[in-house]
Amino acid sequence: MSSARGLSEGNIAMANNQQADISDMLSWDISLAPDIDIYEVDEEFIVYQATTKKYYKIGKFSKVILDKIHESSIIRIEEIIIFACSQQQIISSETKQLVIRFLLHMLTCQVIIRDNMLDPSNKANEHINLKSIKQIRPKPFLKLIQLRSFPQILLIFSKLIPNLSYNMWKILFIAIPMFSLCIAIITMLRYSSSFTISNIWYWLIPLMFVQIMIHEIFHAVCSLRLGGKIRSIGFGLLYYIIPVGYIDLTDNYLLGRKKRAVIALAGPMLDSLAILLTVSCIWLIPSISDILHTFLMLQFSIFIFNCNLLLPSDGLKFVENWFNVVHLRKHSFEILKHSVLRQPPPVYLSRFSLKKRRLYIMYSITATLYILFFITFVLFSYWRVFVV
């Protein structure tokens, strides 16, 4: 089973380090949580937990198990295991372990609950919940500005976007960025001697902030146009030092993969249009060309950053949705961690082939090395601009 956005590290600990006695677990009475909805999107199943506002992607057989729990109202884990084995037409210790790990996983996600889960005297459940909370690790991101309500003008702008076919969107989202990058490279090579940042950074910082926020707003507008929802939008520091904008589009898991791919490319599309605007101004307004030359270089860097597959970027989100690879980055680091610690993988990664695990490990190692290099480069740039 693969999880969607927001799945905590506590699920891994629950699946692999559960201390409860198996025989005791078999007698647990469980039921489906009352605030659960299951959707079918692109022939895949997504579970939504309304209380935690999180989504979890599950396989077809996992859906069968949850349907059985829902039909039974209250059912013992032992009966679920017997049912699962009968569906698979095989009884094995591996099947039992996978079912138990899946159910424990769903318990920590609050997708299913024990019959006595709300009883404060139940020490076993208290241990499970505390263990899950302790395993949660902070994300390497510091939110500085966050907006949860949006002006009606965003919805108005979204209606201005033409209703084009998917193939037409695909052509535009490839042709325009490629054209703008070519123009930008030609311009930067021609005016390479003009690129400087030491004396005009006080102009560039507000310009960069404006472009970053417009970038995120364009994601929001495209999401609204395609029927998506927005939870929040804002500005923060990735890895606590890299200024980036962000937008929470968690609810877009209910859209199709193609729509999510288009939304992911909306930001780089805006960046490419901004590059064309800057290049035009360089030619039309020579009096401020020094600022614009340097700003063009920064815009080019922002575009490359947003398409970098080694970072949690728009380009990575596009690849994940286009090729239906769920949480490539997150799962890669999970597999690397469990390989280094010699621990069994969580249930939703246990079916990965050896070749696939090796590819994920290679990706996570490469991404880690790149992040270390990139953070060093950013710190050096700060030192050069603000200290030297």
TrEMBL record:
What are the leading ranks of the lineage? Bacteria, Bacillati, Bacillota, Bacilli, Bacillales
> Which GO biological process annotations does it have?
proteolysis
Q: Which domain of life is it from?
A: Bacteria
Transmembrane stretches, by residue range?
167-188, 200-218, 230-249, 261-285, 291-311, 360-383
- Protein source organism: Brevibacillus antibioticus
Matches recorded under Pfam families: Peptidase_M50
Q: Which GO terms describe its cellular component?
A: membrane
Instruction: Answer whether the UniProt record assigns the keyword Ubl conjugation to this protein.
Output: no
Q: Which UniProt keywords apply?
A: Membrane, Transmembrane, Transmembrane helix
Subcellular location per UniProt equals: Membrane
State the similarity comment: Belongs to the peptidase M50B family.
Q: What is its main location?
A: membrane
Listed cofactors: Zn(2+)
Which stretches make up the Peptidase M50 domain?
207-378
Which membrane topology term applies here?
A: Multi-pass membrane protein
Q: What is this protein called?
A: Peptidase M50 domain-containing protein
